[in-house]
Amino acid sequence: MAAPSCHFHFTVHKVSRHVITRPFISCSMQPSQSNIKVVINGAAKEIGRAAVIAVTRARGMEVAGAVDSHFVGEDIGKLCDMEEPLEIPIINDLTMVLGSISQSKETGVVVDFTDHSTVYDNVKQATAFGMRSVVYVPLIKPDTVGALSAFCDKASMGCLIAPTLSIGSILLQQAAITASFHYNNVEIVESRANPIDFPSMDAVQISKNLSNLGQIYNREDISTDVAARGQVLGEDGVRVHSMVLPGLPSSTTVYFSGPGEVYSIKHDITDVQSLMPGLLLAIRKVIRLKPLIHVLVIMAESSVWLGEILVSSQTSFFGFCMEPNILE
């Protein structure tokens, strides 16, 4: 579809000693940039419904499909309590949705909120139809990430795997890295409303970030086997304590201590809406990835970066910046 592009110009005419300036407008027809077609896999989940609303409201993208094994046949707009139905039924067949989008030859992204046991096959299907993937699933295994990395290498197709979509979580990780250069004692305390496998992906990522700095923490207590002292993650003494407390928000606190002081960094998630700015940023980023780039969001390196993208197990990185008005 073409859209008019108009420009305002001035022409200068010289009549004897006088210079006359006359404005004119020229218009030309240029092809308009089409929206990113987004398929939400796991659309009936709380985070999936929030993603449908966020993508619908965002500029430059639109919901093109909703996949889930629950509420099959229902309009995803109605399920999300939107003012008007989207006329997009929930379908329990990812291949059917991908096939209809691929025929239109438009740019497409599959957002995967399903399960770590199915995500590999889901990404393979999306890649077969020429679509990139943004993966945010709990408890994804390193072996699965490695397999996806190898597959994306072979297919020359990008896939963004996000341990977190929370910008606040990324900023907490950045602050923890900065603090680790000044303190030798550090412990992580986290709480979740529902029992899940602990430690969480956030705690694991924080400990990895701190361990990669080459420091040894909690030297006076590094070898204790007392269960109440929490689990040591890695070989550098970072301990994590996980609590299940219904009624509390999803919370992560990193405690540092030094002689005569305690420094703590805390991040709470009270609503799944907090993940939507990061999701929209990931969707916009993944379509711009160069071939052979398969990614893992790691951590922030400056206050305006959502994360770093690790290329397989190599040491080269690809950063992306926070964009203003990300929800528009």
Describe the structure.
The protein is of the alpha/beta class and 328 residues long. It folds into two domains: 36-161 and 274-314, 3-Layer(aba) Sandwich (Rossmann fold), CATH 3.40.50; 167-270, Dihydrodipicolinate Reductase, domain 2 (2-Layer Sandwich), CATH 3.30.360.10. It contains eight helices and 16 strands. The chain has helices at residues 46-57, 76-79, 94-102, 119-128, 142-155, 167-180, 201-211, 276-286, and strands spanning 2-15, 18-31, 36-41, 61-67, 90-91, 108-112, 132-135, 159-161, 185-192, 231-233, 238-244, 250-258, 261-269, 295-296, 305-310, 317-321. The strands form four sheets. Strands 5-4-3-6-7-8-14 form a seven-stranded parallel beta sheet, sandwiched between helices. The longest helix is centred in the middle third of the chain and has 14 residues, at 142-155. It is elongated and about 65 Å long. One of its GO terms (cellular component) is chloroplast stroma. InterPro entries: DapB_C, DapB_N, DHDPR_bac, NAD(P)-bd_dom_sf. Keywords: Amino-acid biosynthesis, Diaminopimelate biosynthesis, Lysine biosynthesis, NAD, NADP, Oxidoreductase. It comes from Salix brachista.
